TrEMBL record:
CDD domains: GH27. The keyword Phosphoprotein does not apply. GO terms for cellular component: plant-type cell wall. GO terms for biological process: carbohydrate metabolic process. Belongs to the glycosyl hydrolase 27 family. InterPro entries: Aldolase_TIM, GH, Glyco_hydro_27, Glyco_hydro_27/36_CS, Glyco_hydro_b, Melibiase_C. This is Alpha-galactosidase. It comes from Musa troglodytarum. Its EC number is 3.2.1.22. Keywords: Disulfide bond, Glycosidase, Hydrolase, Signal. It catalyses: Hydrolysis of terminal, non-reducing alpha-D-galactose residues in alpha-D-galactosides, including galactose oligosaccharides, galactomannans and galactolipids.
Amino acid sequence: MDKRMSSLVMIAVLMLCTRCWIGVEARAIVERRNLLANGLGMTPPMGWNTWNHFFCDINETVIRESADALVSTGLAKLGYRYVNIDDCWAEHDRDSKGYLVPRKSTFPSGIKALADYAHGKGLKLGIYSDAGSRTCSQRMPGSLGHEQKDAETFASWGIDYLKYDNCNNGDLKPMKRGDMHPALWADKLGNSWRTTMDINDSWESMVSRADQNEVYAEHARPGGWNDPDMLEVGNGGMSNDEYIVHFSLWAASKAPLLIGCDVRSLSKETLAILGNEEVIAVNQDPLGVQAKKVRMEGDHEVWAGPLSGYRTVIVLLNRSPEFRIITAQWDDIGIPPNTIVEARDLWKHTTMDKRFVNKLKANVRPHACKMFLLTPLPLSE
């Protein structure tokens, strides 16, 4: 479906049960506030979302079983705690009092029951709405003109996360709204924002989204993150090496790690990618600095970013259909000259015996990458 041509201006917002994307806090007295100071999203959010795999074919059984799977696979313990319901969860029209109504044929128990179920498993529940009159699927109402009512509704259900799209908005600009690039203004409203059009499960789509997202790297920081869209890992349209590139770039870019496949039937290979604790640690590093492209030579690239503890992550990316030797130079990646570093391969889970000075090079397969954690060593070593 050609869904969300306006999704470039979608804002994904984390909430703590009582907050919506525009800073409405549903208490006895409703106050508006700057969400950037809400204490949420200090690292990129992690979880699962329905859209990339299920699109509109969702129901409460899928949500419950997916929550169960996050726990049983061990992914929840690694940080994947958001269970996010995307578009198509509500009836076509609001009720007589103007409230959104969960679709009776697919969510007969209601959304609050799902929130309670997720919370009982130590998870959080997310939901979807839209800044226009209808959502991008056209199958349910948007929140335009009903923002406060919907915020209060979501709060009463115990919702923890709101994904807020921007279809069917009557050509209103975001925030009346000034600019069509959320990375330039959304940090005062939410905890993450889309920087790209929707992803699809292909190499070309994935790397282009990484490129578009990288442009806004300087705007990412603890409390607010650039979002190049949800993960396609495990949906079957790319090779295992390509999915490793996908996960490596999203992790290094401090993007939200929102699984987009069917977590109820993960392959061993998919679980190994999504469950790579060392790569997840890069994404969740408290320094919160997004990696950038620091060298491009034809169809191969070096991406690099600083981490806490004076460490650096690098991704050697080969976009070509042939093997490439790719070199990371210290002066490109921001390491002082003559620094001796220890290199750990985050996909092989091994620390290399050799120490490196001024550069590191590796042979990289076609449509693949190498990801290294570089740690400086004392001169005595």
